Amino acid sequence: MGSTSFTNPYAIEVIRTKKNELVSGISNTEDLLDLLISNGVLQPDSRALMSSISAREEKNSKIEHDAILKAVSSGDLYLLQELLKGLDVNTALLSTDTLLHLAAEHGKEAIVYFLLRQGVKLNLKDREGRTALHRASGRGHTAVALALAKAGADIHATDLMSKTPLHLAAQNGHENTLLLNSGSSTNATEKEKKTPLHLAAMEGHTRAVSVLLAGKAKVGAKDMDGCSPLHYAARNGKERKSSQPVSSFHFLHHQTDSRKITFKVKLS
Fold this sequence. Notes:
It is a single chain. 49% of the residues lie in helices and 5% in strands. The protein is mostly helical. A hairpin with a 4-residue loop joins strand 1 and strand 2 (261-266). The chain is elongated, with a radius of gyration of 27 Å. It comes from Cyprinus carpio (Common carp).
């Protein structure tokens, strides 16, 4: 048996009395090395070696991280399985994005199903407060969005702007990803009190508008500016008439009373 290199008689006492600083130093290795050297636990000439080891570990971690990103974005399930051995599928990345966020955003259905089998957490949020279902819905990846909803993802989850996955699907014109059959609320409002119908009308997504209307979306709902989806649709139609006369709204009839607005559109 070789002798221990931990021979300083005060080392254990230092560790005991300085435990808070040591715990803090775990996230900042340079400060930790300074603390150990100043208290005689580590010799100054050992600092270069320790720093070198730390730098090498960080480099290896970055390489592994980049490889995982590439495996997910390319849909390489075999490579991902190899890279994830011994890692937590919920914390394998060096950011607020999870593997499920990335797989959902890229529409990698096989990767999503693999992660679901691994017990991945469905409702973790990224820096914008968005879940994997937000990502899939915003990109129009219908199969992935349906898989997540079926697995129990929160279809009513809101991001930092209070937008649900349905808001993002409507805003980007992904009518097949609106998930109305999964129980999404067509009249949920975001921070500016806009419903998914407001957003679809603003962007001129007539097919999404039709789907939302069929799902009982309220045409008369008012946002914080007092505007209804009808206002935005009319404004959008005027703008497109002069510049982009494609897929614009054509109003056949609208009727307003104190209780109801009937709103009809056709697709062109």
